[in-house]
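The instructor's notes for this session suggest beginning with a concrete chain rather than abstract definitions. Hand out the sequence below and ask the class to guess, before any prediction is shown, which regions might be ordered.
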Amino acid sequence: MSSTQELDWQSWADSEDQTTSGVYTKQGPPLVRGVGARLTDASGQEFIDCVAGIGTGNVGHSHPIVVAAIQHQASQLTICPEIFHHEERAKLQRRLVDLGASAGIERVFCCNSGAEAVEAALKFAKIVSGRPGVVAAMRGFHGRSMGALSATWEKKYREPFEPLVPGFSHVPYGKLDRLDAAIGDETGAVLLEVIQGEGGVRVGTAEYLQGAQALCRERGAFLILDEVQTGIGRTGRTFAYEHFDLRPDLVCLAKSLAAGVPIGAVLIGERLGAIPGRVHGSTFGGNPLAAAAANAVLDVLEDEGLCARAERLGGQLRAQLRALESPHVREIRGLGLMIGIELKRKVGPLVTALRSRGVLALGAGATVLRLLPPLVISEADLAAVVAAIDASLKELKE
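After discussion, reveal the predicted structure:
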């Protein structure tokens, strides 16, 4: 790259730093291009992407089928609120209902993000149950809007904005006896992740998740599953709850559903019954552009067999990581291509070392390295990721 080109991107990167809210700290030269599981920055350096837009790019960057669907719909109509019918939205909702039919999914509410999906699910559970209480899990993360934040456990997110929405309580994830004790007469919903993502890639057990469902049935509460990060093939199934034969009442989706176009959805199960009209809404929810992108993603997921691919490659990757036998590693866990490497030390230096070796990865809490590669990633790129992790772990000081 010429010095002139570098000055060009440096000037607008500086401008962004000057005008941004300050909420985010930026890393390295700007990213300018992505294809499949590879990203290129403004300096020309290429990376293997194990961030995937924090779990958004399941079908990879710039997938031609998704690009074509977005381009076509953008030339036709980009906004059509739900007070009018639209073919792409109708198609998407029918496909999501059909995908969730074995779990009793009957309807869909469309919105624009994971936090919005959680907010909608909480409101639906409250209005139908008539109960204000929500039980959520410690280490859970559900978003940063006020209702979703109230369900999120980590103090650093919550405390600056207290008082939050009343009626929320938190119990240890995986402890069925504690959940049993927490669900009372005023509990309208239990909100859980099948795999806690931000909380360290902690996989729920069948005993715990099925037990939580049984308690909700017994006590008249609704089970809300947050599948914002785990949904749409990430764990080796379209929805992670399928691993555990669950029938959730509400399922929150977003992230990878539209390959980077903002979208959210709530799948609504058979137990919920009628939701009163006009109790919630979304101007942009189910817009034709996002719906077209999501329909293209579902096409790719099916046509390329990405669920099965995620399950196969994820099993291989976990086995290869365990074979490293690093003294710095406490545990390898996950499902499909959602993998957490729990360290015996802070994760920050490992994330930095991997970037220097051309691999982008995430932390999940203070000590867990999280890998969320696109489901289209090649086996050669996964082998390169393992080699980079091996070399980076070896250079860490004892």
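Then share the key points. The mean pLDDT is 96. The domain at 66-303 is CATH 3.40.640.10 (Aspartate Aminotransferase; domain 2).
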